[in-house]
Amino acid sequence: MKGGIYKTRYGYQVRFGKITKRFKKNQLADAERFLTGLRYETDRGTFDIRDYQQDNPLGFANKVDEFIHSKRLIKGVKKYEQRIRYAVDAWGNRNIKTIGYKEISNLATDLQEKGLSSKYRYDIIAVLKK
């Protein structure tokens, strides 16, 4: 099987391809669970190394920064940035794979509770769909 758990001076280390994660001495069960999860994702075909990188390339806030940077030459880029910041405040740097219809619906409800107009709420949701 791919990957393994190795004992170190400070605890345990899980190595799985290019992924390396450390666990403390009393966390052997957590290390085994982590390795089992990686193997399970590989078997299912859903393993994505970007989910485990330290800089979190699939984080929502990181993707927003990339989006704003790509739109920097557009005249109304500040509008995009202002509207999308509501979602960044709500979701932070959460993995974009876990953001679905329910989260967007909850955001729309939160925006309504803040007293924003229906047109402005629509504009915010429209930016998220791009």
Describe, in plain words, how this protein is organized in 3D.
- Strand 2 and strand 3 form a beta hairpin.
- The protein folds into two domains: 49 residues, no CATH class; 70 residues, DNA polymerase, domain 1.
- The relative contact order is 0.09.
- The protein is elongated.
- The protein is α+β, with helices and mostly antiparallel strands.
- The longest helix has 17 residues.
- It has five helices and three strands, in the order βββααααα.
- Helix content is 52%, strand content 12%.
- The protein starts with a strand and ends with a helix.
- The chain has a three-stranded antiparallel beta sheet with strand order 1-2-3, with helices on one face.
Short description:
With 130 residues, the protein is α+β, with helices and mostly antiparallel strands. Helix content is 52%, strand content 12%. The termini are far apart.
Features:
3 strands; alpha+beta; 3-stranded antiparallel beta sheet; DNA polymerase, domain 1; 130 residues
